Please model this.
Amino acid sequence: MNKNTRYFEAWSERIREKRRGGDADLAELVRRLEIAKVRAGSTKPPIDLGALARAASVVGVVQTELAFRGRIVEDGHGLVIEVNASLPRPEQRFTVAHEIAHLFVEGDSLRGTMRKGRGRITRQRHAAVEALCDRLAGEILVPRQWLKQRLERDRVALETVRKSALEAEVPIGCIVRRIVDDGLWRVRFIRWVMGDGRFSAVESWPEVGEDFLAQLECAAGASVLKRAILEGQPVEGHERLRSRDGETEYLIQCLAIDAQGMRSQTEILSALVFD
Ligand SMILES: [Zn+2]
Model:
């Protein structure tokens, strides 16, 4: 195992370790979510978030102008989920699912904190709750078994990622995070954007430090990434990546799509395949 792979693997392991601690809580939350989905009459993607919100006692979901992604407010009739209308539709759906997750994670205490103001929550606790709600949003929108079956059935995995995102009406990031979190495919996903003739790594799953990502580059002409743009379908090959720790050759699969799963001339989703 070379140095880069070790670095990537160490990150993945650390993230998995961190998550394992909260697995019991997570399992209970997921169980309650599953019951709510059944009550809402929506267990298969695309999940009917309006029905699920109602099952969670929300009186309305409204698109509105916001400076952030979304929030839960209390009006005269009950709890209302507000979502930023300028976000792409898959992002809006992820945001609504995240807000629904807050109801499951914080429950009645949410109403309390809304009255008192949320300033009392420590920053650490806030970050932990946000991460948990993102995780649960994935559980709401992309059932594990549903995704697992798709990946097993279709051999061209990146195309499956794209189709699953379109079918579940979620951002690509929601699907790939699910794959990484649940270990459904032993890969690292990296999103690249082309500008001035070179590719920049802009996102990675599992996450790596921002500075590490900024320094990551294709060492030898980015031939596989370029081929993906030209051919418009999934391609596979070997690509040398250079980071501050040195240079390594990876087996890489690439597909030219943007964060919403649409075909792109400038954006690539790639998977570094570890086995
Ligand atoms: Zn939140």
Remarks:
- The longest strand covers residues 246-255.
- Residues 98, 102, 130, 133 surround zinc ion (CB under 6 Å).
- The chain has two domains: 3-141, 145-273.
